TrEMBL record:
InterPro entries, sorted: Cu-binding_ET, Cu_oxidase_CS, Cupredoxin, EfeO_Cupredoxin
Signal sequence, renumbered to the chain: 1-23
Keywords: Copper, Metal-binding, Signal
Source species of the chain: Rhodovibrio sodomensis
Name the record gives this protein: EfeO-type cupredoxin-like domain-containing protein
Domain EfeO-type cupredoxin-like: 8-112
Pfam families: Cupredoxin_1
Length: 114
């Protein structure tokens, strides 16, 4: 009986929090020569930490020039985090600033929503 009650309570907790959970922080993977996803959304006025995973064979980074945010260049197989707190809604370019990578297609968009 105790096991059944505990199981029902845990199930109720999962159901209760499923609709109200905050969105997971975004994760972006980078490889030759793209970001996945190439578009991410974050809310204006909130601090968000973006995880950048380099799944390629070359060194890469994730930069958002308009927000002066950058992961720093990381080696293949490594992960970095950057924190942004954009105040203004809009669209901001994401790119890899390693020479030649953005022109080769390693770009994306950060959409800041109201």
């Amino acid at each position: 009986m105790f096991f059944r009650f505990r199981h029902l309570a845990a199930t109720a907790l999962v159901i209760a929090t499923a609709g109200s959970a905050a969105a997971d922080p975004p994760t972006v993977t980078g490889k030759e020569f793209s970001f996945q996803p190439s578009k991410i959304e974050v809310p204006a006025g909130e601090t968000t930490t973006i995880t950048f995973e380099n799944t390629g064979r070359l060194s890469h980074n994730l930069t958002i020039p308009a927000l002066e945010a950058a992961s720093g260049t990381i080696q293949a197989g490594n992960t970095a985090k950057i924190t942004v707190a954009p105040e203004e809604p809009g669209r901001y370019e994401i790119r890899c600033s390693v020479p030649g990578h953005a022109p080769a297609g390693m770009t994306g968009t950060l959409v800041v929503t109201k």
